[in-house]
Design goal:
The complex is a heterodimer of chains A (305) and B (290). Chain A is an all-alpha fold. Chain A has helices at 2-27, 41-50, 57-69, 84-119, 124-138, 141-155, 169-199, 202-209, 214-226, 228-251, 257-267, 270-298. Chain A has two domains: 2-69, no CATH class; 87-298, MetI-like (MetI-like fold). Chain A is built from twelve helices and no strands. In chain B, helix 3 (78-114) packs antiparallel against helix 9 (191-228) and helix 3 (78-114) packs across helix 10. The longest helix of chain B is centred in the last third of the chain and has 38 residues, at 191-228. Classes of the chains: A mainly alpha (305), B mainly alpha (290). Chains A and B meet through helix 1, helix 6, helix 10, helix 11 and helix 12 of A and helix 5, helix 9, helix 10 and helix 11 of B.
């Protein structure tokens, strides 16, 4: 019930995003065909007519919204004879593979790291984890990506420097690691903080006083609430993965959506940029709803119904 | 601050805590050195930003050639270019932070002071924008505004105001029912004047602290955009752009990547550490007995 209500509530948001995206891109100075080599006025006019750019703005808008509802984002202005939906269809598997593996890696390393640090509070492990995660947060992805490629691709020759090759594992390693590093750091920090806070809560003191062994306290009582900050970070993290994939796909030459988006922005490929923004916004809205639901499961106090 | 030793205001208190923080002091020193380098460094070198040294293409850092940090593949001096990039980074830090400050403080103060429906609508807008990857909006905005330097800075600042608006709104809500505001209303002071004279000065502390945390973010944004080719354009350069160029040549000339990357990471690290220290120093919730 709650899920349905949240989903319905998200519709106006998405509608606003589609509208704002459309008008922003149309307001931009410079059309997509400004840099045509054969840019005689006639050619330009014909191109604009072919893409419907000569019609009144509100007609273009209605046509666009109608198309989006049917899953049609219009033709790409740059990649001739390809629709934006086709381009997204080609890029999405690449970006999704990267994103999913990066998040899995970040969780499976970040959570244990944070737990270890919290359990050895103010000891060597704790300082090491805190220091490492600070470093990973301060090093931007576009610095780490070329450096990793340099060390593991050029100097050590363990892994290919760039390329995709249909997602062969050895081509995936560097991009996924690069993408996940900041999230490993954030998750470790949040996990550490979460567990430290929970461990000092009165109900755990009671549990200890009742003589429940430490291990059982950790797994049965402390872990779930301590995960709350990590879970709430997963929403923003999705957005972060998308942003990070802009860099990662560029550096490692991967044919994902991020690359199309950057190229689209440079080429003023209106429909492509709008399509990607709308896709990302939808993904984030849906994932935020999932995060809210997970929250309710982890912490009964904030269960809504 | 003119308080004597006996009277300890929140400011002098925070400053004292900050001085006791070794990390904060070191970060501040690094920032000062970088600032100084950015301002005077380019004048120390014999080369200008886009001087091409025909005898020294792609040479590694060395003291004897006069190219202290090497040259790029068309013989331009990397010491000068990196420091110029540093200037851009510091410039974006100032301009974009001021823009996000201006928008965030106005938005938050108006929403918090007005309350009711207007407040709800304004904060709902902030929530919606929050849930979106704002780097995409910066990119859309830079596409919209073109590649002008200041317009790009403003675009970056225009997207970073959300947290600021939330903080200011929270503070304003707490202030709204205080007696001195009521007194001003009763005395017939216009609302705009109340906001400017009574509300904003009282929320400025947390705002300044958060602004210092915004600075590394906007610097990162600018270099991120420039790295992707969407930010600063030729003939100007920025650290992000230099890193992108260096990444193309790294297999044979790693210094082209490492030199600008080192400057950027040093700047980001020291600013973040100082920002964190400032936040801790002003954070009264975990004030320990001194």
């Amino acid at each position: 019930m709650l899920t349905l209500r949240r989903l319905l509530g998200a519709l106006p948001t998405l509608f606003i995003i589609v509208t704002v995206a459309f008008f922003l891109m149309r307001l931009a100075p410079g059309g997509p065909f400004d840099e045509e080599q054969s840019s005689s006025a006639d050619v330009k006019r014909n191109l604009e007519a072919a893409y419907g750019l000569d019609r009144p703005l509100y007609q273009q808008y209605l046509a666009y919204v109608g198309g989006v509802l049917r899953g049609d984002f219009g033709p790409s202005f740059r990649y001739r004879n390809q629709s934006v939906a086709e381009l997204i269809g080609q890029g999405l598997p690449v970006s999704a593979t990267l994103g999913v593996f990066a998040m899995l890696l970040a969780i499976s390393i970040g959570v244990p790291m944070g737990l270890l640090a919290a359990l050895h509070h103010r000891q060597f492990v704790d300082h090491a984890v805190t220091g490492l995660s600070l470093t990973a947060i301060v090093l931007p992805g576009f610095v780490i990506a070329p450096l990793l490629a340099l060390v593991f691709g050029v100097y050590l020759q363990w892994l290919p420097v760039a390329g995709w090759e249909a997602g062969a594992p050895k081509y995936l390693v560097l991009p996924v690691v690069t993408l996940s590093l900041p999230f490993i750091a954030y998750i470790a920090r949040l996990m550490r903080g979460g567990l430290l806070e929970v461990l000092s809560a009165p109900y755990l003191r009671t549990a200890r006083a009742k003589g429940i062994p430490g291990r059982a306290i950790l797994w049965r009582h402390a872990l779930k609430p301590a995960l709350l900050p990590v879970v709430s970070f997963l929403g923003p993290a999705t957005a972060g993965v998308m942003t990070g994939s802009l860099v990662v796909e560029q550096v490692y030459g991967l044919p994902g959506i991020g690359r199309y988006f950057v190229q689209g922005a440079i080429n003023r490929d209106y429909t492509l940029v709008m399509g990607v923004v709308i896709l990302y916004a939808t993904l984030i809205v849906v994932l935020n709803i999932l995060v809210d639901l997970a929250y309710g499961w982890l912490d009964p106090r904030i269960r809504h119904d | 601050m003119t308080e004597s030793g006996a009277v300890r205001g929140p400011w002098s208190d925070a400053m004292r805590r900050l001085r006791g923080n070794r990390v904060a002091i070191r970060s501040a020193c690094v920032i000062l050195v970088l600032l100084l380098l950015a301002l005077v460094g380019p004048f120390l070198s014999a080369y200008a930003l886009d001087d091409v040294d025909w005898d020294h293409f792609t040479i590694p850092p060395s003291l004897s050639s006069g190219h202290w940090l090497g040259t790029d593949s068309i013989g331009r001096d990397l010491f000068v270019r990196s420091l110029f990039g540093l200037r851009i980074s510091l410039l974006v830090a100032v301009v974009a932070t001021l823009v996000s400050l201006a928008i965030g403080v106005t938005w938050g103060a108006v929403a918090g002071y007005a309350g009711g429906r207007l407040d709800a609508a304004m904060m709902r807008t902030v929530d919606v924008l929050y849930s979106l990857p704002y780097i995409f909006f910066v990119i859309v905005l830079t596409v919209l505004f073109g590649s002008g330097l200041y317009l790009m800075f403003i675009a970056i600042g225009a997207v970073g105001w959300l947290t600021m608006a939330r903080i200011v709104r929270g503070q304003t809500l707490a202030l709204r029912d205080k007696e001195f505001i009521e007194a001003a209303i009763v005395a017939g002071v216009p609302t705009a004047r109340i906001l400017v004279r009574h509300v904003v000065p009282n929320v400025i502390g947390p705002v300044i602290v958060y602004a210092t945390l915004t600075i590394p973010q906007v610097i990162l944004f600018e270099s991120f955009l420039s790295f992707l080719g969407l930010g600063v354009q030729e003939p100007l350069t920025s650290l992000g752009k230099l890193i992108a160029e260096g990444a193309l040549e790294m297999e044979t000339s790693a210094w082209m990547l490492i030199v600008p990357a080192t400057f950027l990471v040093m700047l980001l690290a020291s600013l973040s550490l100082l920002g964190d220290a400032l936040r801790d120093a002003f954070d009264t919730s975990q004030r320990r007995p001194a």
